[in-house]
Amino acid sequence: MSDAAETPETAQPENTQAETAKPERSRAAKWSRRGFIGAGVLAGGALLIGVGVRPGNPVGKLSSLVADGEGEQLVNSWVKIGTDNIVTAIIPHCEMGQGAHSVLAQMLADELDADWSMVEVMQAPTDGSYIVSDTARMFVAPFTMNAADWIEPTWDGLFTQIGRLADAMITGGSSSIRSTGQYQMRIAGAAARKMLVGAAADKWAVPAGEIVTRDSTLIHEASGNSAPYSQFAAAAAEQPMDHSPTLKEPKDYRLMGKSKRRTDIPGKVDGTADFGIDAKIPGIEPSDLSYAAVRRPPVPGTSVTAMDAEAAKGMPGVQQILNMGSFIAVVADGYWNASQALSTITADYSEAESPIKTTADQFAAFASALDGAGDEGGEQAASRGDAMSAYADAATKLEAEYKAPFLAHAPMEPVNCTAWVQDGKCDIWTSTQVPLMARSAAAKALGMDADDITVHHPFLGGAFGRRLENDYVTMAARIAKATGYPVKMIWSREEDTQKALYRPADLSRFKGGLDAGGKLVAYNNVFTQRHDPAEASVPGIYDIPNTSVRVAEADLHLPFSAWRSVDHSQQGFFIESFIDEAAHAAGADPLEYRIAMLGDNTERHKAVLEKVAELSNWSAPRGEGIGKGVAIVESFGTVAAEVIEVDMTSGKPKMINAWAVTDAGYVMNPDGFRNQIEGGIVFGLTAALYGEIDIVDGAAKQSNFHDYKILRMDETPAIEVAIINSGTVPIGGAGEPGTPPAAPALANAIFAASGERLREMPFARQFS
Amino acid sequence: MRILTATFAALSALTLAACGSDVEEPVEQIVVAEPGEAASYPKPDQTPEADTPEQAAE
Question: The complex's ipTM?
Answer without folding.
Answer: 0.86
